[in-house]
Each structure stands twice: as structure tokens, then as C-alpha cells.
């Protein structure tokens, strides 16, 4: 307990799930909570359990009820929770008091994850860099306890039969190119990770309404005098939808593409709609799939990603009218369309006579990678639709700035990209890793963690990398938005160059893995 303005405040701890920590550590945390209960004479039902988090709520009728935190993370999704876990894992930041503001019941009731059964259609393809980050913060072991699918091969080709390339983890002396994981597994693993620590965090089951910074107010119809002011050193005040308030030194917007933090703090954005939608769903094969497949079609790419057992995930980009039709068509017709798109539909298979000798790149034969000698394969046939079909519009959005004084954006709140390479959430995890490291560096030299000069270091580091990835993905999308003979030949040449020019292929794999920048941006 600590004294704040003459009153006692107790830090609540989320208990780790049984079996996740040594008994001695769990008993220590339980004893701390029991001591707080005894001192406050509080009913035991008001405390956190290993699956439920209850937090002290401020009563709007009592002006003194304003809770103080070092950092307020608005958004408890995958990226927001990853930031919290990263802060909890580092010596210089694990003492920080963190508020997580999110009305998602999963943060209190637990994320329902079953290793058996049908995979959820909402998945992420996490890169080796993201896997390393999860291992560093202690979350990957929880992913491995649940369903996940590593893949070490990827085949990419187009509908013309001209463009084709294969990638293999052995090309860069790696074991895997990535891992496909259900979003709910990633989220649950991060929750388990944060529960396994004594990190001082409080989860507020609410939504952000307004932000106040010093004498200014951010939000329609509110003024800074409408509610109590914050203590010195906690200059940002957040008013929540349940009437409670809290103050923080730093507010992190991790609340998605329609970020309330971004809106209230006045960050401007640049972007556009693609006039495309993506259909996602889980499908089943008669055999297990171990490869990631992507074929570029006239209306957009279709990807077939392994998710474990005989299941795969479909991400199919098309125009909105086609997406609306395919979302509701009967299962038989939909499966026919999927198999058509992944096989001979729209054009022939790449010709082995052209691919076998490398064409104009045959002079590079002595230096070709292992995957350059692998033959074209037809993806495993889809035999069953195993989940509902979901459709969502595609767009590109980028915040002109990520940071201002005491406010910073991460993940989809700062940028959204086309899903054709599955890089969106990996960029967000990169943001979380970078921001936590910059905060630690600021603490090490005694800098205010909300100081704009410190936060701009994070922005400078991440903005360049995010824009580079967005430019690559947007360029690919636009290159395949036109069906034109000469352009088709140029695209085919690019595919073949990626397949047969070893340094280029290795650079592409390393860049897509999140392990290095493209040379032009280095």
C-alpha cells in the first residue's frame, strides 16, 4: 500500500494461472494480496483471480478518486498487451505502474482457447523477429502450449503462368520462415505472460472518452475543470465511459485503426481505400499442409496458410461485390471457386521448361539457392469449409506523426497495411518492442517518459521501417492491379530474379522475416 493525497491505494495483481509459476512464487503473490485484503478489510470477492481482473473504479461523485499511473495503455489487444509484457520483462521498466484500458471481456473472463477443434479464421503469420520478441518477453512458451503451425517453405506465383518463385528457410540457414497462429492464441499467451509477473498493472474495463493535458482538453464537450486535476508529474488525465478517471505520465494509443487516442490527441493521417475486400476463413484438407502458398489473381492475391493438423487459413483479396457474393454463396460453390483459384483458374501453371533452367538467369546457376531447384507444386485441395466466412474492406493508413508530448501511437493506431504479406501485426509488435526499449533508455538517463524528445526517438526508429514496408506492399498491390502484357512480362522477370538471384532472394527472406532492412533503407 502507498499513501496518495492522504488515502491508501492498493496495487492489484493478476494471479498467474496454476501451473505456470513455481508454487513458492504463486504463494508469495497470494500472500501479498491477502495482506492487502486484511489491511483494507475488503471483501475477498472484489479481488482479482487467475482469470478475472476487477479494478477500483473512481466514483464521479467523489472528486478525490483519481488514480495515478506512470503509463496508460489504451487498448488491451495483442499489441497493447505485448507492450505491457515487454515493460514487465525489463529491469528498468518493471516497476512502472501501468493502466490498461479496454472494455473487451476477454481481459477479465479469459480468452477461450481450445487446442482441439476448428481453428478460428482470424490468424496472424508471425515472423522470426516476432517469435524472438515473444521469447524475450516470456510469451512464446504459452503459444507453443496451444495450436500453432511453423512453415519452412513458401511458393508464390501468378495467374499468367510467367511469374513464379519459391522460398525455403534453408536458403538463409534458418529452420522456419514463420509461424501461423490464431489471434486468440497470441492474445491469450500475452495475458498468461502478464499474469505470471508481479508487474504493477491495473485493467480498467471501460472506454476512453476524453483526454486532458495540463489546462487543455481533448474531447468534445469537456473541460479540464469538469473533474479533478492530476498530481504534479502526471499531466495527462483520462476520463472513462464508466465515469472513472485516471492520470498518467504517458498515454499509449494501442486502440486500433479507429483509434480514439489518435483522434483526441489530434494526430493527422494519410491514406486511401483499395476498393478491395478480403475474405478470411478456415478450410480443411485430406492431408496436412506444411507450406505457405500465395497466388496473384487479376482481382487480388489468394493465400493458403497452414494452421495445424489438416487445417489451413484462406485470405482472399477481391473486389467488394465479389466478396459480398462469395461470403454468402453455398459451401460447394465456394470450395469450387477456392480450388479453381489455387490451381488452373485464370491461367496456366508456371511452365517447368522455363523454370527448370532459370531462363535469362541460368548464368547464375552455380550460386542459386536450394529452393531455386525445387519444382512448382499444386497446393493441397480444399475439401471442406471449416468456419464462417468473414469479409472486411482493405485500406492503407499512416499517421503523419507517432508521438507528441505525453502521447504516442503504436500498432494499427499508427499504421494499417494491405494484408498480402501478413505484415500488419508484426509491424505492431515491432512498435511495442521499440517503444519499451526507448522508455527504458529514458529512465536510465533520468528523462521524463512523456518527454516528446524521447518519444520522437521511437518515432524516428519505427517510422522509417513502417513506411518502407508500406511502400513495398502498396507497390506490389498496384503492380497487380493492372493486367497489361508488357507489365506482365516485367512482373515475371521480377519473380524470376527473386527466384534465381541468390543475394536478392536472401535479402527478401531476411527483410520479410523482420531481421534486416532493405538495402535502400539501410
From TrEMBL:
Q: Mind listing the GO biological process terms from this record? A: carotene biosynthetic process; xanthophyll biosynthetic process
Which co-factors does it depend on? FAD
Q: Where in the cell is it found?
A: Mitochondrion inner membrane
Which stretches make up the FAD-binding domain? 70-326, 387-464
Reaction it catalyzes: a 4-hydroxy-3-(all-trans-polyprenyl)benzoate + 2 reduced [2Fe-2S]-[ferredoxin] + O2 + 2 H(+) = a 3,4-dihydroxy-5-(all-trans-polyprenyl)benzoate + 2 oxidized [2Fe-2S]-[ferredoxin] + H2O; a 2-methoxy-6-(all-trans-polyprenyl)phenol + 2 reduced [2Fe-2S]-[ferredoxin] + O2 + 2 H(+) = a 2-methoxy-6-(all-trans-polyprenyl)benzene-1,4-diol + 2 oxidized [2Fe-2S]-[ferredoxin] + H2O
Task: Give the EC class as a word.
Answer: oxidoreductase
Membrane topology of this protein: Peripheral membrane protein
Q: In which pathway does it act?
A: Cofactor biosynthesis; ubiquinone biosynthesis
E.C. code: 1.14.15.45, 1.14.15.46
Q: Which UniProt keywords apply?
A: FAD, Flavoprotein, Membrane, Mitochondrion, Mitochondrion inner membrane, Monooxygenase, Oxidoreductase, Ubiquinone, Ubiquinone biosynthesis
The UniProt GO MF terms for this protein read: 2-methoxy-6-polyprenolphenol 4-hydroxylase activity; 4-hydroxy-3-all-trans-polyprenylbenzoate oxygenase activity; FAD binding; oxidoreductase activity, acting on paired donors, with incorporation or reduction of molecular oxygen, reduced flavin or flavoprotein as one donor, and incorporation of one atom of oxygen
Please state which protein family the record places this protein in: Belongs to the UbiH/COQ6 family.
Record-linked PANTHER family: UBIQUINONE BIOSYNTHESIS MONOOXYGENASE COQ6, MITOCHONDRIAL
Q: Which HAMAP family match?
A: COQ6_monooxygenase
Its annotated function is as follows: FAD-dependent monooxygenase required for two non-consecutive steps during ubiquinone biosynthesis. Required for the C5-ring hydroxylation during ubiquinone biosynthesis by catalyzing the hydroxylation of 4-hydroxy-3-(all-trans-polyprenyl)benzoic acid to 3,4-dihydroxy-5-(all-trans-polyprenyl)benzoic acid. Also acts downstream of coq4, for the C1-hydroxylation during ubiquinone biosynthesis by catalyzing the hydroxylation of 2-methoxy-6-(all-trans-polyprenyl)phenol to 2-methoxy-6-(all-trans-polyprenyl)benzene-1,4-diol.
Name it.
Ubiquinone biosynthesis monooxygenase COQ6, mitochondrial
